[in-house]
Amino acid sequence: MDDMFADLDEPVSSATTPASPTGPGAKKAPAEDLYAFLAQHSGPAKRSERQEVVGGAANAKRQRTEGTPSASEPAGTSRAVRLQCTTHLETAASEDRGSRAEMEDVQVQVADARRDKHDSRRVSFFAVLDGHGGRNVAHFASEHLHESVLEAGLLTNKDGGAAIDAAKRMKQAVLAGFEATDKKVVQRCAAERWMDGATCVAVWVVEETVVVANIGDSKCVLARTSDQANSQGQVKAITLTRDHKAFHPAERTRIEQAGGVVAADGRLEGRVEVSRSFGDRQFKQKGMVATPHIQIFNITDRDQFLLCGCDGFWGVFGPEDAVKMASKLLGEGRDAKATCNRLINEAIRERRCKDNCTVMLIRFLKQPTDAKGTGESR
């Protein structure tokens, strides 16, 4: 396995995801067999300022006060957080329902996502979930994903070990966490008779390491300068995620081996365009899975920010286009929140996005450390 902590090439070489649940000649497997396989191999305002808080019901109240803006502070407010590391994070998001009757996107920002507040390691969690056919699954998954990944061992072996071992552990935890979350989602869907689903792009920042995972067509792009010595150099866009569409050859093969059909219009069973999602329980025995694509890297001085968004946003913005505009706005002195607002305004008002539209910006702020080794918040 390649060193996942090595400097990313442009274009990025993807982290390897597990083999398809059904290989050539394999029998059609029911959903419970699919989950067993994964476990074995992974070891209504127009503009919403609503901010989701995750980590399970038991942690929600604690995280609202310790990891997110207070009740008196507008949710999504741009803020730099004092953390025990040399890179600080400034995060914000903005969203608009477009011409849709309902807003089905859910965005999550948890700056301090530690379970153990005595653990000095920075752990932050961010996600954009894009619901289809409703918002129930997106909301439910947003409340369980981070906790499921922690339960799967994202932060184990904190006292060291080879970087490659840490990368493998993180990847296995994310794979298992997505699997566990989807199992909970499907069980809840059956109990409540929900039929909707949700794509997802999720980001964990653990000290100076970034883990990006996605299912479906929600996307994350890294803005990286071309010059290590000059953070104001030309900024390149590096796509860290992989779209999972039913018409893609590898996905089509996997779906057909699972007993599903990709219709002439490229949709799974003629109904849904994506091939990986949370929920969509009626398609789980037809090739719909929640196995994420994963990318892991260490933050360098060249890395400026991440842009995460739903397919509505990326449908009117290309990666280079979005990074260029965001970089220009930040360079003019705007903070993360103002930048997100401008991006959404451009998407909806100027580029005529009709879909739900959400964008999140995670900015890496490199600052000198003080004598105790902690960064100075600005």
From TrEMBL:
Residues 1-81 are annotated as: Disordered. PROSITE patterns: PPM_2 (PS51746). InterPro entries: PP2C, PPM-type-like_dom_sf, PPM-type_phosphatase-like_dom. Residues 1-10 have a biased composition (Acidic residues). Residues 90-364 form the PPM-type phosphatase domain. GO terms for molecular function: protein serine/threonine phosphatase activity. This is PPM-type phosphatase domain-containing protein. It comes from [Myrmecia] bisecta. The lineage of its organism: Eukaryota, Viridiplantae, Chlorophyta, core chlorophytes, Trebouxiophyceae.
